[in-house]
Amino acid sequence: MPEISVIIPVFNEEKNIGPLCSKIKAALTPLKRSYEIIFVDDGSGDNSLKILKDIASGERAVRIISFTRNYGQTAALAAGFEHAQGDILVTMDADLQQDPADIPRLLQKMEQGYDIVSGWRKDRKDAFLTRRMPSQIANWLISKITAVNLHDYGCTLKVYKKKAIEHIYLHGEMHRFLPALASWNGIDIAEVPVKHHRRKYGKSSYGLSRTFRVILDLITVKFLLSFSTRPIQLFGGWGLLSLFFSVVSGTAVILMKLLRNKDMTGNPLLYLTVLLVVVGIQFIMIGLLGEVMARIYHESRKHPTYIVKEII
Ligand code: UDP
Ligand code: MG
After folding, report:
1. Could you give the CA distance from residue 159 to residue 114 in angstroms, rounded to a whole number?
2. Which end of the chain has fewer CB within 10 Å, C or N?
3. Those residues with Cβ within 8 angstroms of residue 200's Cβ, 6 or more apart along the chain or in another chain
4. Which has the closest alpha carbon to 55: 92, 94, 112, 2?
């Protein structure tokens, strides 16, 4: 069994795969630890798969997972995690923007007692307006909202201990939130600056719209981290607040009628009262539905709502 599994999603990267493979070998061989390289071909339309097969036929450490169509980078990573044999998982991009020569430093950092070590593209070589600026805003938001403080959540060059992430299922485009989701289980995360290069071959699969998707995902992550096991406390709280203000506004309507003889049906506060009652009840109902769903979710997966470190 290899000790280290390097997982690389590939989508139309035909010119990058060959050089990448040699660079990984050059970086990992001196470590004298066994490793495998898992390429996940995410339905590439170019020659990537053929080139991968050629490499794998001469290279025992190389394995290929090939998708039937393009499912996206997150799905490709999830498939890699699922099939990895090593206890240490390394993820990186296939586009040569990251440098395999950084992997040994990340592994060294891990040996100081961390479960996840994340790369930090300190000197990032991407366009400012469409890439670096949106990503700076997103990074700031993510670090405010999740309890994990990293400079660069988007960097896919990361090293994980398998046990730190094996309980986590990846949906949508959640791979950038893996450290945040894993932090829920109380794991230790470190960050190490890594090199970053301009993309030489092929083109990026993403544009500016990704920023908005990331922000929407962030809302989901925040909910999962804070309230997934007790949704009634979030929605029920808002519901009670709304009902409280409906009482305030309803009382005002009645007092205005009694003291000032103001017509109730002509009083806009009456409509506010009705709205707040309806919204309040809705929130409480959503909270209850959430509770039922959370139970179905956790119980069907036989997934405890905690992880035991050791029993003494
Ligand atoms: N990728 C993938 N499926 C996709 C899009 C991208 O597997 O649908 C891979 C791609 O081949 C690369 C990595 O994900 O290895 C990052 O993609 P890209 O370089 O386009 O993103 P960027 O670096 O511009 O954020
Ligand atoms: Mg890239």
Report:
1. 10
2. C
3. 15, 16, 96
4. 94
Ligand 2 centroid to residue 305 C-alpha, Å: 36
Amino acid identity, position 311: I
Atom 8 of ligand 1, residue of closest alpha carbon: 72
Question: pTM value?
Answer: 0.87
Architecture of domain 4-227: Alpha-Beta Complex (3.90)
- CB-CB neighbours of 31 under 10 Å: 14
* pLDDT, tens only, 100-142: 999 999 999 999 999 999 999 999 998 888 889 989 998 999 9
Give the Å distances, CA to CA, from 278 to 111, 140, 236, 272.
55, 36, 13, 10
Closest CA to 71 of 168, 172, 154: 172
Phi and psi for 309 in degrees, rounded to 5?
-80, -55
Dihedral (Cα; 281, 284, 289, 295), 10-degree rounding: -160
Q: Is 252 exposed, middle or buried (0-12, 13-18, 19+ CB in 10 A)?
A: middle
Q: Would the CB of 9 count as within 6 Å of ligand 1?
A: yes
User: How is residue 288 written in tokens?
Assistant: 């209850």
Range of lowest pLDDT (40-49, 60-69, 124-133) = 124-133
Rounded CA separation 280/245 (Å): 9
Sequence ranges of the domains in the chain: 4-227, 231-301
**Full strand arrangement of the beta sheet holding 158-161:** 62-66, 35-41, 4-10, 88-91, 158-161, 116-121, 189-194
Ligand 1, residues 39, 52, 71, 73: which to mutate, most atoms within 8 A of Cβ? 73
Question: pLDDT, tens digit, for every residue of 263-284?
Answer: 999 999 999 999 999 999 999 9
Q: What is the CA radius of gyration of the chain?
A: 25
The C-alpha atoms of residue 308 and residue 192 are separated, in whole angstroms, by 29
21 Cα to the center of ligand 1, angstroms: 17
